[in-house]
Amino acid sequence: MANELGKVLPVSVEDEMQRAYIDYSMSVIIGRALPDVRDGLKPGNRRILFAMRQLGLAPNRAFTKSAKVVGEVIGNYHPHGDAAVYDTLVRMAQDFSLRYLLVDGQGNFGSIDGDPPAAYRYTECRLTAAAEEMLADIDRDTVDHVPNFNEEREEPTVLPSRIPNLLANGSTGIAVGMATNIPPHNLGELVDGLIHLIDHPGASVEQLMRFIKGPDFPTGGIICGTSPILQAYRTGRGLLRVRGRAEIEEGKGGREMILITEIPYGLSKAALIEKMAELVRAKRIDGISDLRDESDKDGMRIVIELRRDAIAKVVLNQLYKHTQLEATFGAILLAIDHGRPRTLSLKELMSCYVEHRREVIVRRTQFDLARAEARAHILEGLRIALDNLDEVVRTIREASDRDGARAQLMARFELSEAQADAILDMRLYQLTGLERGKIEEEYRQVLAQIEDLRAILASEQRILDLIKAELAEVKEKYGDARRTQIVPEAGEIQIEDLIANEGCIITVTHAGYVKRTPVSIYRTQRRGGRGITGWGTKSEDFVEYAIGASTHDALLFFTTSGKVYCANVYEIPEGSRTARGKAIVNLLEVPREDSLAAMIRIEDFDPDLFLVMVTRRGMIKKTPLSEYRNVHRGGIIAINILDGDELLDVRLTRGEDEIVLATRQGLAIRFPEANVRPMGRATQGVRGIDLQQDDTVVSMAVVDPDATLLTVCAKGYGKRSAFEEYRSQHRGGKGLINIRTSERNGEVVAALVVRDGDELMLITSQGMMVRFRVDENLRVIGRATQGVRLINLREGDAVVACIPVVAGERDEEGEDGAETIAGDAGLPEEPEAPQDEIEPSDPDGPAAEE
Are residues 788 and 779 in contact, defined by beta-carbon separation less than 8 angstroms? Predict the structure, then answer.
């Protein structure tokens, strides 16, 4: 071996081979076979997309020959064989290879049957819209560029990648001593998971899997088992069992046939059919009479006709066993991270992408800021020139040449060289009044832009918000439905699957005892009835909260201190009608000094829904429901409560509803939910109603134009009125009269939305319950009235709650022999003339305490 001085040095052949092989293997690993964790591309893919951009092959431009792209790539960026480059380009244009195409191909780019593509002189291509997202902002110094192989031009080391391409499209590669096999995923699920990870950096893989269910292959299919997916996401390695989608149908003459409409990812359809035919000829699979491919442009359709005596299930299981109709996908989440190959978990892959996007946005903002500051500097010079126009013109006219004029302007007006050049480049029309006004307006806009860009760089939350906004935009543009179904295997059945989905009543006493009771045990009665015993309580205890739910729902428990806890309905211990129940502190980690304020039934944590909260002192707050998806056993903060106040009620809304707040002294205010802007969890909210002295809020309701508002008082009286009776006001006003409180009625206990056909349950402090249908027992009357008797109370008893119940089987009166005492079912409704409305002190409402 000769060194740089020309001397020959003895070298061990073994050492030299080892060094050379390590250099070669690292070159293959870094430079050819493995994707970068940030943009999910190998160097070959990245160079093809960049070269196509440099050629101007945008989605709205004409197609160009693939040969031209291949020549551009190998001539300027990728000095390897043209076959390798063209094969890479072809794969990015195959809808059965990539979940989200990066190349829009025209011509024969191969088929799922294994047919090869046409030669590159026959096909044409251009970038897709998704590929443009991968390249977005690349000219704004968002990524590093390095010289190409002959140092004649530069190429990017990574793409900005607004799309999480590594997980969206997956990647496959074999390097030296290592390999990667990352499955594709659904973009909509990925975006939801990334946004959740940004909001909750401590989220576990299991929590992320609530959004990202598993791989989503472009060819569909069925993944059998969720445990292997969790294993792969936790460790970076796992074996996924994937089946084609096959259905058994009845054909002509009563014979059964198997229809295959989807096959496992990466499998050739022609090879699958050939293998099936081979097994039939070899009599390893018996019962098949005909096998044909009826696939067309509308989709795949492989028809397997069976003999009369064949059992379709048996034949299908034989196909799963002996053919690739059931295949194993070996997931290996290996990628290049900071120049080194690493096997990463799902969370690590997502975190790397978020960090990449954070760096891109910071660099983009710095670039825009520098450009805006440079423009502001020029505009400042132009403003100086316009303010001293005569002297500037005289200075230029007296100068012998441009350099002399520049020097004199710089000296006379303390200008920079760039400002002086801009003044010298001004055209005469820019001296008009209109053009001068444009310069002033542009200067103001540039200063505002500079302020905003500096605010972004100074705020980590602003940067994260930009990442989330751009991800949401990508989801809106390119998100689609999941194609691959995920089914649990035996032993992976969720506990919910073993529990009957049935209606129940969840009740909590003032002393903190909770139980779940089937709704069917409460029979329907007429209003005014005495009711049946619904709770066995101690003499000093009474039922305080109740809600109708299904055993498959989740419950959010909100406490008066502003915290929220979560439990599944089926976890609530079931009890008989007269049982006390179980102490809630044994179910949730609620401090004994805290008490329950509201229970909310949740079917799923829809990101388009909101939780609206109100306190007794009239403060109101709105927060997206998704903020409460991950509530741990110890609870989390739901709302910040001011001293002397407490959380009263919580409602689930759509973000565009109207809210009614009802007070203890019989007032109510109605206002649009849009008047309350969405806030984070740990905030206190804004003023909802201006309360009179000694008054408090007792209920919150969401307006339903097709329903009515039922108001219930402590002494068993109540009424329902149309929402038209309550005109909409501004948030923070004093409200209108809702019901006349008196010695006869007592103070207001609850106000809730009801429809004809709804069933309600009144609960008293002594544990009595009465259930009745709204439309059969209570007609609609005016707003400012006293109402009618709803329940005949014992002495010393009082109504403490009124709740809607899940519709159940109506029992015949007296069927179970429970206590039933006929009440005053025919009492007159005693309407009274409305009194004057109480107007807000300010037509626009008092200033909200934001």
Answer: no
Q: Is 193 or 597 the better-scoring residue by pLDDT?
A: 193
Catalytic status, residue 122 = yes
| CA atoms of 721 and 784, how far apart (whole Å) | 9
Q: With beta carbons less than 8 A apart as the criterion, state whether 367 and 140 touch.
A: yes
- Please tell me the distance from the alpha carbon of residue 693 to that of residue 659, in angstroms, as a whole number: 22
Q: How sure is the predictor about 28, in pLDDT bands with cuts at 50, 70 and 90?
A: low
- Decide yes or no: CATH 2.120.10.90 for domain 502-804: yes
Q: Of 594, 99, 584, 160, which is closest to residue 359 (Cα–Cα)?
A: 160
Task: Provide CB contacts within 8 A for 15, sequence distance 6+.
Answer: none
CB 216 within 8 A of CB 189: yes
Which pLDDT value is given to residue 594?
82
Length reported for the chain: 850
Please report the DSSP string for 136-173 in residue order: TTTTTT-S-EEE-TTSSSEEESS---SS-HHHHH-EEE
Phi first, then psi: what are they for 714, rounded to 5°? -65, -30
> What percent of the chain stands above pLDDT 70?
88
- Residue 329 predicted with pLDDT over 90: yes
The rounded distance, in Å, linking the Cα atoms of 608 and 592 is 34
Q: What is the pLDDT of residues 111-147, one digit of tens each?
A: 999 999 999 999 999 999 999 999 999 999 999 999 9
**Catalytic: which of 77, 120, 122, 320?**
122
SS3 (DSSP) at 758 = coil
- Asked whether 395 and 409 are in contact (CB, 8 A), the reply is yes
Give the tokens for residue 365: 């903002």
Contacts of 710 (CB under 8 A, 6+ apart): 718, 719, 720, 751, 752, 753, 754, 760, 774, 778, 802
Q: What is the pTM (predicted TM-score) of this model? A: 0.62
CA distances to 367, 633, 699, 738 from 788, rounded to whole Å, are 71, 44, 20, 14
Residue type, 821: I
The CATH class given to the 350-476 domain equals: mainly alpha
What does R_g of the chain's alpha carbons equal in angstroms?
Answer: 36
Could you tell me which of 648, 644, 690 has the C-alpha nearest to residue 671? 690
Do 572 and 584 meet the contact criterion of CB atoms below 8 Å apart?
A: no
Beta-bridge partner residues of 543: 509
Residue type, 334: L
| Domain ranges in the chain with CATH number 3.30.1360.40 | 245-324
With 0-12 / 13-18 / 19 or more C-beta atoms within 10 angstroms meaning exposed / middle / buried, residue 458 is: exposed
Phi, psi of 302 (to 5 degrees): -105, 120
If we measure between CA atoms, which residue out of 755, 810, 757, 808 comes closest to residue 550? Answer: 808
- Under DSSP, the state recorded for 757 is T
Pairing state between β 334-337 and 340-343: antiparallel
Crossing angle for the helix pair 346-387 and 433-458, nearest 10 degrees?
Answer: 150
CA dihedral 312, 318, 323, 326 (to 10 degrees): 80
Q: Yes or no: say if 43 and 69 are a contact pair by the CB < 8 Å rule.
A: no
Contacts of 14 (CB under 8 A, 6+ apart): none
Residue located via tokens 């179904």: 485
* Tens of pLDDT, residues 380-432: 999 999 889 889 989 999 888 999 999 999 999 999 999 999 999 888 777 77
Q: CA–CA separation, 102 vs 798, rounded Å?
A: 69
Give whole-number Cα distances, 608 to 603, 679, 686, in Å.
13, 14, 21
Is 349 within 8 Å of 335 (Cβ atoms)?
A: yes
Is a pLDDT exceeding 50 seen at residue 833?
A: no
Q: Which residue has the tokens 């709205």?
A: 60
- Identify the architecture of domain 41-160 in CATH: Alpha-Beta Complex (3.90)
Specify the fold of 245-324: Gyrase A; domain 2 (3.30.1360)
Q: Rounding to the nearest 10 degrees, give the CA dihedral for residues 408, 413, 418, 422.
A: -90
First to last CA, the chain: 78
Tens digits of per-residue pLDDT, 257-274?
999 999 999 999 999 999
